[in-house]
Prior knowledge:
The chain is 34% helix and 13% strand. The chain has a seven-stranded mixed β-sheet with strand order 1-7-6-5-4-2-3, sandwiched between helices. It has a four-stranded mixed β-sheet with strand order 8-11-10-9, with helices on one face. 51% of the residues are buried.
Amino acid sequence: MSGSARGTSAEGGVGEGTRAVRAGLPEPVKHEPTLPGPVFAAHYHLPGESTGPYTYGRDENPTWTHLERAIGELEAPGRDGVETLVFASGMAAISSVLFSQLRTGDAVVLPSDGYQALPLVRAQLEAYGIEVRTAPTAGDAQLDVLDGAKLLWIETPSNPGLDVCDIRRLAEAAHARGALVAVDNTLATPLGQRPLELGADFSVASGTKQLTGHGDILLGYVVGRDAAAMAAVRRWRKIVGAIPGPMEAWLAHRSIATLQLRVERQNAGALAVAEALRDWHEDLGVRYPGLMSDPSHKIASQQMHRFGCVVSFTLPTRARADRFLDALRLVDDATSFGGVRSTAERRGRWGGDAVPEGFIRLSVGAEDPKDLVADVLRALDESAQ
């Protein structure tokens, strides 16, 4: 990690709530705030030939340092030799791993059912002469196309379909073939799943979503355990300049203190909504890894600590889906997920996901679960008229 901090996993044995509340805090200084304010600086004093931890604002910032320590303590508690780097967005973090590790002639394995920007990434990789292979998340299908690959990219649960694959199995197979493994951990969060403990080399996420949880900042991060690989990621960040602003980094760190509280509430709400949708008189094809009837539940229960705040289901037509969204009162019709205010969208509106026109991705917020269930069931009923 970038460093140790007071009251964190370095002490060992603390609960996740304690870890989240105290993650990344510096040693206390008399009469100073427990979490120092954001540092706005493009450059730092460097008298003579002296060097130090901070030289130029594109390379390092004290506010990033605290946030990077906090994220590292959640993604890899108690692990030495783990480094965390923060980025301007989740896509900046994803791109940093792919484009720093791959060269012309390399092969990479991506999920065919992953985040909707991955097809754009694929086109760019192929333009650079990199072979891109794809396979679905479910059934560990990526195993079949691993031979000769330099990097395996896993997204589990997948977005938006919520399929789950066996990270440990895939990582062992990839490493046996000499490939690095990166896991997009956005949907799970570090409190739901810790990819490095399951054998991955990188855990990557959009901090825009549930990690920060308020829908007001863009942020991404990469956590890695391979020093040489992370040095390449850091170099990529320096070259491209995909850095977060200090205010965004400070807001993110501030928000992490409530992560465990938000995750617990949102996961409980998501399960309640998923169960209500499952029991609806129409077959909605509900997907949520926390449902015992879900195809992904068995493997999810083995590697996930919590199952996330996103539920997906499919209405018969595009028109029905639009009517359902219009009828909701407690759920905002918006893209993104993970915020304290529930959101939902007809995912097919964007054209980047292989989903039916009536497919709904619902992100459960921190509202009272019974109120959300009532709102969703009422909207289903009204939209059927």
